[in-house]
Each structure stands twice: as structure tokens, then as C-alpha cells.
Amino acid sequence: MCGIAGLINRQGMDISSKLIEMLSLIQHRGPDASGISIYGSATDEVSLRVSVKRKDMEEVLLNIVGQYGTVLSPPVSQWIKNVIFSELQLAIDDNDIPLLHAAINSIEGLYVHSLGKGMRVYKDGGTIIDLNSNHKIINNIATHGLGHVRMATESAEDINAAHPFVSPFYPDLSIVHNGQFTNYFNLRRYLESKGAIFKTLNDSEAASHLIAYAMRENGGDLEDALRMAGEELDGVFCIIAATAQQIGFVRDKLGIKPLLLFEKDGLTMLGSEQIEFTALFPDVYAEEIEPGEVRVWNI
Amino acid sequence: MEYIDAANLKSIELNKEIINKLKQCGEVTIQNPHSMHNVATGLPDPGKVIIQGSTGFYTGGFMEGTTLLVEGNVGWYAGDNMMDGELVISKNTGCNAGTYIYGGNIVVYGNTGSRVGYGMKGGTIIVCGSAGPWAGQMTLGGKLIILGKVGSKVGESMYKGAIFVRDPEAGDKMGSNVFLDSIKADEEQELKSLFARYDITADPAEFKVIRPMQTGRHTYVLFDPDLKPELSRKMPV
User: Fold this and answer.
1) Which of A124, A141, A267, B83 could be bridged to B229 by S-S, CB 3.0 to 4.6 A?
2) Residue A291 contacts B, CB cutoff 8 Å
């Protein structure tokens, strides 16, 4: 099933807390993993969030980071079940961000959850309560974000198979997905031929690489990339995608997976179920998105 | 009138309790439903159930003659597979309200999501607000009445039955294999009495009817069961 959420407030608000409230209301759609991505925090620093399989691999990580940029503060790491989670603040040239992202992902046991300016992805296996207790979520004022609760229908149930997914092709982009793709292996073969390194067997990771690859090739046009994804992805799906400047969605042509939209008082909310919207407004009716529709908002 | 506090009950416990209380006194009010799923599903007996608050998915599914009033919103598949009875919802519902119903009446005073009345075989659904895409898709019978705006592909691939619409743009939003027709005198009368019964202010003369086309069909004989939902009710011992 899975549940998804998207939230925009251009004036800025505590996006992470509100997304978590929205996701708590649709936890019944998926207890296997949870995650959020947050954009537009006021910080200018580039933050890197990485899952590390073993303690000694942190050295490897710092070595790779050192080849592309400078670590500004000692890594904040924490044990989460059987992985270590590291967050680093970096000084790095914008052009080197995709290279660093790909370099870290090329090492077995290291997986970038997010790498970007004013952008963070928090994700974990389990429920929203696990996400909140395992990660120190910074509740800064931000402008927009995505959220996801996962019910695993394929691939592993662990921290790395949680949403949102990011891709070194366009590190700024994160996506959340509700649905299944039936052409995963064809997509994967195509994307691997373009240099994608797959870190999980989750079909949503393929979608993140596909949209990110399209954005790299078309110069960062999210709407065009989502239209292409709507054509190329086979199956039933709703995807919400975000970059630092934009949020957009694509819904499959059959309209099997739910996606609702509500806009009021300068807020834009996307969600899977009506009840999600009660996190911000007590009693509203969100409109259903047309099957096959693509829409993008500029922040 | 009996009351049930649903705050600490699972839906299976709640539904057993509703059935017990209906047998005792015929009318029961449920408090604190907290958007629980499967509320009042599979009620076998006539009687009246009032839910004070919003409910989740599959509310009032498989009902066989009960009158169910929901004072709030309902999630998707409201009244799924209803055989007989009445489901009245004061606010909005999610998608697939009234899917596969055989008989009875469903009234939604607010808006509804996509595929309302999907595959319905009989009965009546009234939506006072707007409806999402694919309203009345693959309908096999019954009446679907929509007072507000309809979404795209209304009546897609319907076999039988009628969809009554007041949206002036409905003709541009129809699915395939249907046509827009004018309302007949007997249908106007039926709508008039339904609107009076549910206290709805609308003029039946303003409605157009979406009906299935008979051309271009295969030569198979449409499965046409003689439905008697009242027989499914348990006879008093």
C-alpha cells in the first residue's frame, strides 16, 4: 500500500514536524519503513547523511569525502540497530556534489541518504516512532518536504530500502513513491548502462535514478522529467518529487494509487488519504488528482 | 436507544456489540469511532445505527437492511457490496463509495472521490457534492445521482443503469460507450420522491441522464440475475 505526503509553505514553517504528524495519521498504510525529506532550511552548509554498515568503514567514508571537499565539523554518528548513521557538514564545490555522491555509493556498505545544501533526508525501517527516536530530526523552519510510510511489497525491509530515495545523477532530487513498477529490470538495465549504481532492490530506487537522470540531461526541468517518467514507468504508481526549487507529482494513467491535493492559506498539501490533511486543517476535502496528471509547483 | 463507546474496541468487537445491541433494542449510537475501519460491516438485521464522528474504510459494507447514519466523513469503499438498507453520510467520502451494491440507498451530503458506484448492480446512490473521475464505471444497474460537478470519464463502459447528472459540462466528461439523454417523466418522479425523502433541494427537471449505448457491443447475453435482496435477510425464528 504505502502512504505519501508532500507539503509546501513558501513563508516557511516547521515542515518536518508537520510531515511527521501527517504520516502518523496514515501509519496504517505502511509499518515497515518511514522517511521524510526536508528542503529550504536557512543553512548554507552542505550536509551529508550516510548509512555505514560497519564502524571501521567510517574511515573509508572520511577519506572519500576528503578527496572532494572539507569536513567542517566532526561527524555526528549514531548506532541505529545494526548500522551506523553519520551526518557531516561539508564545504564543497557545487560541481563536485554529484561526484562525491557517486563515489560514496560505489563503496559496498556505504549509502548516501542525502547530500545537498539545505536538504536532509531522514529515513529508517519501522514506524514514525522509530524514525523519531533513532534520528535527531532538526525541526528548523523550512519551505517544503516529502514524507513516506512504507508497506514493503518487494525487496528488503531495512533503513536503506526506506523512502525518500535520492540519486547521484541529480543529488538535489528526492522522491517518494506509492505503487509498483512492472518493468523494474528493464529500467535497471537501462539505468546501469548510464552509470547508475543500485544500492537496494527497491523498485522506487529505479524511479529516483530515472527522474534524476532525466533532470541531469534536460537541465533540471522537473515537469519534463516527471512526464517522461509517466510514459516510461510501467505499473501503478504515484510519485511526488522535490528539489530545492520545486515540488511535483506524477500519477499513473489508470489512477489506481490514490493521490489527493489541498491548497489553502498559502499551503499546498499532497497526500494519500483525506485524514492526512487533518494534521493542519480540522475538516477539509482534498481534491483527487486526475489519472495520468503531472503538476509542478515552484517554491 | 443504546450507546457504545468505540474508543477502546477493535472493529471486530465493535461490530459484534452493534449486532447484539440491535437485537435488543433496534437502535444504537456509536461514539468515538476515531476513523476506525470496517465499522458496521456485515450487519444482518434491520434497525438504526448512528455513528457520531468520522469512520475509515469499508464502513457499512455488506449491510442487509440496516439504516446507518454517519455524522462525519467516511474513508473509501463506503457501503461496499450493500444488499439492502440505507447508508447516509453527512460529510464526504473517499473513493469507491457504493462499489458493487445490489440494493438499498446511499446518500452522501458532501463530496465523493473517484469511482463512486463502481460496478453497482442495483440500488441508488445520491451524491450532493462533487464526484471524482470514473463515476459509475462499469455499472450493471441501479441509479447514480450526482448533484455537483462530475470528474472525467463518467459512466465509462457501463452496461446498464442510469447516471443522473446536473453538471452542465458532464457531456464533455463522459467515458466511452455512453450517451447523454434527457430525463424521462417517471424518472423525474422517482428523483422527486428521493429528494423529498432525504431533504435535498434540487429540481429533477435540471438533470440529464447518462445511459449505456447498445451499439457496438458483442453478441453475448448480459448476465442478468433476478435480484431479491430482501430474501437474504434472516427470517424471524
Assistant:
1) B83
2) yes
